[in-house]
Design goal:
With about 120 residues, the protein is mostly helical. The protein contains four helices and no strands. About 5% of the residues have low confidence.
C-alpha cells in the first residue's frame, strides 16, 4: 500500500485547517503565531521584504537624547579627577606578542640541540 497520497492529503488538510484558524483569529483580534502564517499577515502595514525606516525627526530626537545622557555622565565623572581621561596614564601600545627571556631561549635551544643530537645518533647507528 502506497502511503504518499495519504500523506499529501493530510498535509493539505493541515494547511487548510491552519489557514482557517488564522482567518478566524484575525476576525476576533486574538491573533497568535501559527505555523505557516505569512510575514505580511503577521505584521499588518508591512509588506514582505520591506524594512521600516526612521524619520529624520526620529533620528534627531534619539541623537539629542543620547547627547543629553552623555552630558550628564560627563558631569558625574568630572568632579572625581581620578576618573577623568586626562588623569589616566596613556595605554602602553604593544605588538600583541610576548617576548621570551634570554634564559628561556637558552633553555629551549639547548633542549632542541639535544633532540637533534639524538636523531642524528639514531641515523648513524
Amino acid at each position: 500500500m502506497d502511503i504518499n497520497p495519504i500523506l499529501t492529503d493530510l498535509k493539505a488538510e493541515l494547511n487548510r485547517i491552519t489557514q482557517a484558524i488564522a482567518a478566524i483569529e484575525a476576525l476576533d483580534g486574538t491573533r497568535t503565531a501559527t505555523p505557516g502564517a505569512t510575514t505580511s499577515a503577521a505584521k499588518p502595514g508591512l509588506q514582505a521584504g520591506k524594512r521600516r525606516r526612521m524619520s529624520a525627526a526620529g533620528r534627531k530626537r534619539i541623537s539629542e537624547a543620547t547627547k543629553a545622557r552623555w552630558v550628564v555622565r560627563r558631569k558625574q565623572v568630572a568632579p572625581g579627577a581620578a576618573n577623568s581621561v586626562a588623569a589616566r596614564p596613556a595605554a602602553k601600545k604593544t605588538s600583541g606578542r610576548r617576548t621570551m627571556s634570554p634564559a628561556a631561549r637558552k633553555k629551549i635551544s639547548a633542549a632542541q640541540r639535544k633532540r637533534w643530537a639524538a636523531v642524528k645518533k639514531a641515523k648513524m647507528a
